[in-house]
Specification:
heterodimer; A: about 350 residues; mainly alpha; ABC transporter involved in vitamin B12 uptake, BtuC; 13 helices; globular; B: six-stranded mixed beta sheet; 11 helices; 12 strands
Chain lengths: ~350, ~325
């Protein structure tokens, strides 16, 4: 008989492809990060960017431009990682390839909370939006979890998806109801609603940094359980996985990650949906690998979208939320067709 | 060894059927039993007060009509459901109080509704059976590899190791799932309807594979089967459930009677000797089915000499005159 040597495919071409993709996209990410500092309404040559980065004390117009763009780039990377991770977790825990953070009701929750606070208390400072949005997201997510766990058998993927859709629809009508009679609120809300990186400030990002870290650590903890869960709840339990705990962990991590992102950058669609799909296409069904690759793909998509938005309509910006949707939607259709989705 | 509610003899030791005892390569021989086990959802009891002491190294089959609680019972055995009353004991300890991963190194479960992740290869699928042996962050080791290789070889799937599960035939796919359960290296394997949706040749292939495992490794196998005749052919002991109650427990020879089939499944049947295995075999008797009429015809002509009881002559007469 032939000697069977390869460990579950460590030597198979797909793994090699995954490693190559990871390295190449890491390089691409660094290039994009530098470009997103260099390119803007006032371009700065790459050599100067590197010079300023190496010498924090540098002064001049170029140095100022660079310093303003760094938080934007950092937020792009953080948000890209967070959204892609949250999407991976959502797809894993619901076994639904179409799941993404929006089915948590997070965006809806954040939007409603912000609109409500604008209309009633008259909030206007970005840092206030951050915390109010965070709170709204978490309440909506808890509502979806509670609704999806009703019944003797506890949370199931289908119930979760339905609960998310119901809560999102309800919040969206409530938001409109509050918004429509108030012209002044509409104009300040619409900037938040599109989702963008232009409001990035270190003073807003740094306080929320621990949440990104906690979310990602929780996500990593969930990955083995998600691999078991992928084969069905019963099989996962039979393998000794604590299914409910894994679901709660994945849920909690996606809530933290996407609520934090939404609070800082507004609702950015399609990253959580498309990125895990693309990663899965390359590395197969192992969530550890999908997650790793998504951590690089997410920021790439976000930074690239942000750059495109800046370059296309110079000197004004098209917000990144619009560009990710413009890029993401066709990508998603192509991916879905190629993967020949069996379970919609 | 086994407790029976029926007055059927408790003498259902595996030795009686000529099977080798547990001469195992697996170091531990876990022992599973239930005492007064009741399981239910809310107020409704699906499984009612079942005592079962599963003999180590045997093959057991759980039979009964749809909705009788077969799967629920199996899931409770694997710690998937919490008993309302009674306990499941693994080596004498309450399974509900044991860490999930420790249970999973001794009791393996192959549920009916398993999903192969899209595009996964056979070896990747099988390697997931090693889940209970891994703590967070622990690396794949030589022991894992040996277990996976062994499972692939035992199920005859080593030639398919790098093939996507989606591309396999039904029988091969089921063998891949069984390989996953084997890679889990448990002394007890529970299977929920492992032959459902398979063509008859694959059904036999899967059951032969399980018999081989039992014979070579001494693995204790308990499976839910809806085909009573296959159960009788392959099992050392059978547990018949009806409405969550234990209707009969014993060797197929002891319990598979016309009376039991009527009581459990609500059908009239003739029990004959299976010419292939010598085990009892049930022939369901449906008044209006072609097969039943043909069988009746043969009986009256004198073909069916293996019948264990005399044909029901009144019914015959009734049919003849129709």
């Amino acid at each position: 008989m032939h000697a069977h040597t390869s460990r579950s495919g460590t030597k198979n071409p797909r793994t090699r492809l995954g490693v190559i993709c990871f390295v190449v996209s890491l390089v691409l990410l660094v290039v994009l990060a530098l470009c997103s500092i260099a390119i803007g309404s006032r371009p700065v040559p790459l050599s100067e960017v590197i010079a300023v980065l190496g010498d924090p004390g540098a002064s001049g117009v170029a140095a100022e431009a660079v310093r303003l763009r760094i938080p934007r780039m950092v937020l792009g990377v953080l948000a890209g990682m967070a959204l892609a991770s949250a999407g991976t977790l959502m797809q894993g825990m619901t076994r639904n390839p179409l799941a993404d953070p929006s089915i948590l009701g997070l965006n809806g929750g954040a939007a409603f909370a912000i609109v409500l606070s604008m209309a009633t208390v008259g909030l206007s400072a970005p840092i206030q939006y951050v915390w109010v949005g965070m709170l709204g997201s978490c309440i909506a997510a808890l509502g979806v979890w509670a609704l999806g766990s009703l019944g003797a058998k506890g949370p199931s993927p289908l119930k979760m998806t339905l609960a998310g859709a119901v809560v999102a629809a309800m919040l969206s009508s409530l938001t409109s109801a509050v918004l429509l009679p108030r012209i002044d609120v509409i104009s300040s809300f619409r900037f938040w609603q599109v989702g963008g990186l232009s409001g990035a400030r270190f003073s807003l990002i740094v306080p929320l940094l621990p949440l990104f870290v906690i979310g990602e650590v929780m996500a990593v903890w969930c990955l083995p359980g998600l691999n078991a869960l992928a084969m069905g709840d019963d099989l996962a339990r039979g393998l000794g996985s604590r299914v409910r705990l894994v679901r709660m962990g994945a849920w909690g991590a996606s809530v933290i990650l996407s609520a934090t992102t939404t609070a800082l950058a507004g609702p950015i669609g399609f990253v959580g949906l498309v990125v895990p799909h693309a990663a899965r296409l390359i590395v197969g069904s192992n969530y550890k690998r999908i997650f790793t690759l998504s951590l690089v793909f997410g920021p790439i998509l976000l930074l690239a979208s942000d750059l495109i938005g800046r370059v296309l309509t110079r000197p004004t910006d098209v917000e990144v939320g619009i560009v990710t949707a413009l890029i993401g939607a066709p990508c998603f259709i192509v991916l879905a067709r190629r993967r020949n989705l069996q379970q919609i | 060894m086994m407790k029976t509610q029926d007055s059927k003899g408790p003498d259902s030791t595996p030795a009686a059927t000529g099977r080798p005892g547990p001469t195992s390569s697996i170091t531990r021989d876990p022992h599973l039993e239930t005492t007064g086990l009741s399981v239910g959802y809310g107020e409704h009891l699906v499984i009612n007060n079942i005592d079962l002491d599963i003999p180590v190294g045997t093959i057991g089959a759980i039979i009964g009509p749809n909705g009788c609680g077969k799967s629920t019972f199996l899931r409770a055995l694997a710690r998937l459901l919490k008993p309302v009353n009674g306990t499941v004991l693994l080596n004498g300890a309450d399974i509900a109080s044991m860490p999930t991963k420790r249970v999973a190194t001794q009791v393996g479960l192959l549920p009916q509704s398993s999903i192969a992740p899209e595009g996964i290869t056979v070896s990747d699928l099988v390697s997931r059976g090693r889940y209970p042996y891994h703590r967070f962050g622990s690396a794949w080791n030589a022991e894992d590899q040996t277990a996976v290789d062994h499972a692939l070889r035992a199920t005859g799937m080593e030639g398919f190791a790098d093939r996507p599960v989606d591309e396999l035939s039904g029988g091969q796919r089921q063998r891949a799932w069984i390989a996953l359960t084997l890679a889990q290296q448990t002394g007890i394997v529970l299977l929920d309807e492992p032959t459902t949706f398979l063509d008859v040749s694959y059904q036999l292939e899967v059951l032969d594979l399980l018999s081989d495992l039992n014979a070579t490794e001494g693995t204790t196998i308990v499976m839910v089967l809806h085909d009573v005749n296959l159960a009788a052919r392959y099992a050392d002991w059978m547990l018949a459930l009806c409405d969550g109650h234990q209707e009969a427990l014993g060797t197929p020879d002891e319990i598979l009677t016309e009376e039991l089939v009527h009581r459990v499944f609500g059908v009239e049947a003739t029990i004959v000797d299976d010419p292939a295995s010598g085990m009892p075999m049930m022939i369901a008797d449906r008044r209006h089915s072609l097969r039943a009429r043909r069988a009746l015809h043969e009986t009256t002509v004198g073909g069916n000499s293996g019948a264990r009881t005399a044909p029901k002559t009144e019914r015959d007469a009734h049919h003849e005159h129709k």
